[in-house]
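In the lab's daily routine, each protein ends up as an entry in a very long ledger. A line of letters takes care of the sequence, but it says nothing directly about the fold. The fold becomes a row of whole numbers, each drawn from a learned catalogue of backbone shapes. The protein below has been through that process, and both of its lines are reproduced in full:
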Amino acid sequence: MGAGTGTSVPGQASSSMPPNPAALREISPVFLCRIGQDTVQDIVTRTMEIFQITRATQLPNGVTQSQAAYQDRFGKLQEHLRQLTLLFRKLRLLYERCVEMTSDLQESPTELVPYVGDEIAPVRVEPCNPAVTQDKQEVLEKVRQKNQEMKVLMDQMRNLLWDINAMLTMRK
């Protein structure tokens, strides 16, 4: 029973990841990457929450803070850090599984770099189905939106780090 619980701990962090390795073999690498993307989003969210809790914590300036409030914040921080550890483990497992599943698709570096003098064979492009073209445009728009959201999150995190560094500098 101990060995069974050790393999299912990362799967318990999210219901989207199946608990047993046999089920992972039937999942496509694209689906694993989508789960990985969601996991990265969860990691960013948890990190933002940790910074917000840290930002809201009053620095010890001679005023005694209630023990209950301190314990509450400390418990929240511990829980977020534990969840963050589990999410990183899950992300690592997803990465290893994707690499394992796509190892035969990896091209060697010599195939990626064209040599001088080698002529590149022209690739014949056939017209696509309009539905496929529309799907591609929708996916590209979603990616642009996600990228914009990620930029906003990164700016917020950068500002939060600046604020924390400024508070630490003022403390000295």
